Amino acid sequence: MISSKKEAMDYKLVVVGPLDTNCYLVSCKETLECAVIDPGAEADRIFPVIMEFGLKPILILNTHGHIDHIGANKDVKEKFRIPLYIHTLDSSLLEKIQQFELSFFLGARESPPADRFLQDGETIAIGRSSLRVIHTPGHTPGSVSFLGDGILFSGDTLFCGGVGRTDMPGGSTRDLEESIKSKILTLPPETVVLPGHGPWTTVGEEKESNPFLG
Q1: What is the pLDDT of residues 11-32, one digit of tens each?
Q2: How far is 158 from 42, CA to CA, in rounded Å?
Q3: Which segments of 149-191 are extended strands (E)?
């Protein structure tokens, strides 16, 4: 678990599940209201961090609907009685979690349906801080990234030295490339990129050295 602070926003990272999914707890430093981004598994690892820092979860945000990013949606939603947000194009994936043979291995429980669908360009308030939704299709049709205070939560769209897979149902290499080049690489180079797996990076570093973006 790591934490970092920029301006009004604070975030803490909890790595969960066999696929080492990055679950982010994004909070307002003043109110401690918190969004839980991608609770993929192991709610029993997420809850203690929330309690330790006195965070007040107000919503769940899924960057996309793959099983390793939604596996603890149910546990988090039931404990805190908070709404779940996902892009409409990935909403059907929430209903298919138990169809995957790996669901037990990944520690995933059936996800509740979304309470609200995310829209490209909308702002999600978290206390006195906020995140802007950026629709970044390619890894899945409904993949989104969240931008706030110079930090981008990129889900499985862009990684440190890599990009998201497009060989699964609904994936599109052309859409992924367009999303990254037109919506992420156009951000200021100092923007910190916090991906769905692996270490953080910056827009500038990926623009210069990511082998998949040549």
Answers
A1: 999 999 999 999 999 999 999 9
A2: 24
A3: 151-155, 158-159, 162-163
CB environment 47-84: b (16+ within 10 A), e (fewer)? bebbeeeebebbbbbbbbbbbbbbbbbbbbbeebebeb
The 10s digit of each residue's pLDDT in 38-76 is 999 999 999 999 999 999 999 999 999 999 999 999 999
Instruction: Go through the domains of the chain in sequence order and give each one's CATH number.
Output: 2-213 (3.60.15.10)
Q: 60 near 84, Cβ under 8 Å?
A: yes
The pTM of this model reads 0.94
Measured over the CA atoms of residue 81, residue 83, residue 84 and residue 88, the dihedral's sign is positive
